[in-house]
Amino acid sequence: MTKLLHKYWKTAAMAASSYVGDSPLFLIDYLLRLLRVIVLLSIWRTILAGKGTVSGMTLDAVLTYTLVAEVFAAQLSPRTTLDEVFWNGTIVGRLLQPLGIFGQFSADMFGRWLFEFSVFSVPLLLFAPLLGVSALPAGAGAAGLFVLSLALAISVGLAIEFVFGGLLVLLQLPHWAVSQVRGAITTLLSGAIVPLALLPQGVGAAFAWMPFASMASAPLQIYTGTGEPLELLALQVGWSIVLWPLAHWLWRVSRERMVAYGG
Amino acid sequence: MAGNVEPGTDQRRRTNDERAIPQNKHRSSFIVRPSSPILRRNIWRLLRLWKLYALLDFTFLLADLKLALTWYISDGIVNLASVTATLLLADRFAGIGAWGRYEVVFLLGYATVVSGLMNMFFGYNVLTISRRLGRGQLDHTLIQPQPIWLSLLTEGFMPFSGSPMLLPGIALLVWSASRLSLAITPGWLALLALNLAASSVVVLAFSFLWGSLAFWAPRAAEEISSSSIRLLYQLKGFPLDGLGSLLLSGMLTVLPVGFVAWYPCRALLGLDPLAWSRWITPLAALSFAIVTSWIFRKGMRYYGSTGSQRYSSLGHRG
After folding, report:
1. Nearest to B279 by CA among B306, B304, B259
2. Among A3, A116, B10, B176, which residue's CB has the most CB atoms within a 10 Å radius?
C-alpha cells in the first residue's frame, strides 16, 4: 500500500514541478487571474450597490463567494489531462504504467493543484482584506462542512471528467470541441462565476439540480452560509453515486475501441 | 517517395541558411508604402488569398459533415454559454449599473461580433500567435514567397467554419438596436463598423504583444496568447463603469479589456458625454498596433539570429 501511494505521490510531484521547468513566465497566468477576480469583485459591487439582500445573498456574501470560487477554481472544476492524451497519443504510454488509469490521472491533477495552491490560492486568501473582501467562512461549522463538500465536489467533477473521457472515445468526438463545450457549460451551470441564486428564479432553481451545481455552487453556498448544507451534501453524494458507476462502465466499454496515434 | 526522405545534415544546414532572412528583409516585409505598386499588388493578392482560403474552408467543412456539424453545434453552445450569464444577470436586475437591459444586450452583441471576427479572420493559431512561435512553426510562414503580414492576414481566414460566433453576435446587435431608441444613420453604421474593426485590432495587437514573448521564451510563453485572449474574452461582456479610476485606466491600457466592447459601446450608445468618444477606440487601436509592431519586429530580429530550438521536421514542438 505504501509503495502504491509512493508511486501516486511521485506522479503528483512530477506534475507539480513541471510548471517551473523553463522560465518564470508562467506566473503571468496567475497575475491575469488576479486581475480577473479584481474586476469581477468590482462588477458585483456595481450590480448589487444599495440593493441589500438579494435572494438570501448580501453583497459581502457574494464578494466572499467570488473570491473563494477563484481560490478553489481548480478544485471546483477538476480537469485531468485525459482528453489531451487521447489527442496527442500519449495515452499509450499511460496505459503501460503500473498504475490504475483513474488513479494516475487524478494524482497528476493533484500535483498540479499543489503548485497552484501555494503560488496563487494561498496568497489570494491572505491578501483578501486588501481587496475589501472577508475570506472567512460563515462559521466554524460551515468551514468543516465546506471541506466535506469540497471533497464531494471534486468527486463529482472527476466522475464527470471520466464520463466525458469515455464518451470521447465511444462516440469518436473531436476533443477540442468537447472540451470547449464542457468548459463553457460547466462555467455557466456550476455557479462558479455567477451564484445560481442571483439568476432569474426559475433558471437558478433548475440549474441547482444539475450535477454541475454540485461541483461549485454547493460548496460555495456552504462556505458563505447561503444554502442548506444537508440538502446540498445529499445532492452531491447522490450525483457521486450515479456518476462514478457510469464513468467506470463507459471506460470499460470504450477502452477497447480506443485508437491512438501521434505522440 | 523522395520527398519523404530526410535530407542529409549538410543539405539541412544549407536549407536553414537559405531560410535565415537578413534583418533588413524582415523590416521590408512589414513596411507598407501607400503609393507603391507593391501595395496594390499585395492588396490584390490579399483578396485572392482570402478567396482561396474561403474555398479551402468550405471544402474542409464539406469533407466531413459530421465533424462540421459537431463544430457548429459546439461553437454555438460555447458562444451561447459565454453570454448567457450576463444576459440572465441583466434580466434579473433590469440592467447592470447605468446600463439598461437592452444596452447590455448591445454590449454582448458587440463583444460577440468582435470575437466572431477574430475567429473568422485569424483562425489556425494566427490569433494565438505564441503557439506558432513557441512550437517553431513560424518557419512555415517565413519560407513563403510573400510578406509575413500577408501570410498572417490570410492563413487564418475561415469564413464558413468561423461564422458560428459572428452570426449570433449580429443577431444580438440587431435585436438590441431595434429595442433601443437609437438614431441609426449611415454615419452611425460607419462608426459602428470602424469601432468593430478597431476593437478587433486591439484584440489582435494585445495577443501579438504578449505572444511576442515566445520569441525569447518559446516553451514558457507558448500558451501566453491564449491566456491573454481568454482574460479579454472572459471580461469583455461586462460594463466596467464601476471600476476605480486606477483599475479602469489599467483596463484601457495595460489590459485593454475596455476597448473590446465596453468603451466603444458606451460611445455608440451615447452613454459617454465626450463628443469625440467614438474616435477613442480607433485611436487606441492605432497606438496598440504601433507598439505591437515594434515589439514583434524586435522579436523577429531575435528570431532571425537564433531560430527556434523547438523546430523539428514535423514543425512541431520538441
Report:
1. B259
2. B176
Question: Which of B81, B84, B92 lies closest to A198 in CB terms?
Answer: B92
Per DSSP, the three-state class of B275 is coil
Q: How many CB atoms lie within 10 A of CB B41?
A: 10
List the 22-81 stretch of A: residues with Cβ below 8 A of B.
Answer: 22-26, 28-29, 32-33, 35-36, 38-39, 42-43, 45-47, 49, 51
In Å, how far from its chain's centre is CA B188? Answer: 24
- d(CA B147, CA A112) in angstroms, rounded, equals 41
Phi, psi of B17 (to 5 degrees): -60, -40
Expressed in angstroms, the distance from the first to the final Cα of chain A is 32
- What single letter denotes the amino acid at residue A126? L
Chain A residues in contact with B164 by the CB 8 A cut-off are none
Alpha-carbon distance of B241 to B96, in angstroms, equals: 10
The closest alpha carbon to B225, from B292, B303, B111, B125, belongs to: B125
Instruction: Return the pLDDT at B23.
Output: 44
Between CA B287 and CA B299, with CA B293 as vertex, the angle to 5 degrees is 140
Look up residue B168 and give its three cell numbers.
449570433
In chain B, the residue whose alpha carbon lies closest to the alpha carbon of A204 is B88
> What is the residue extent of each domain of chain A?
2-257
Q: Does the beta carbon of B82 lie under 8 angstroms from any beta carbon of chain A? A: yes
User: Rounded distance, CA A193 to CA B173, Å?
Assistant: 24
d(CA A228, CA A234): 10
- pTM score of the predicted model: 0.82
| pLDDT of the residue at A251 | 86
Q: Which residue in chain B has the smallest CA separation from A45?
A: B242
CA distance B213 to A261: 31
Cβ contacts of A180 on chain B, cutoff 8 Å: 74-75, 78
How confident is the model at residue A254, as a pLDDT? 83
Average pLDDT across each block of 10 residues of chain B; the chain has 318 residues. List them in order: 34 37 46 65 90 94 84 82 86 88 94 93 91 86 89 93 88 93 92 97 94 85 81 85 87 91 94 89 97 95 83 54
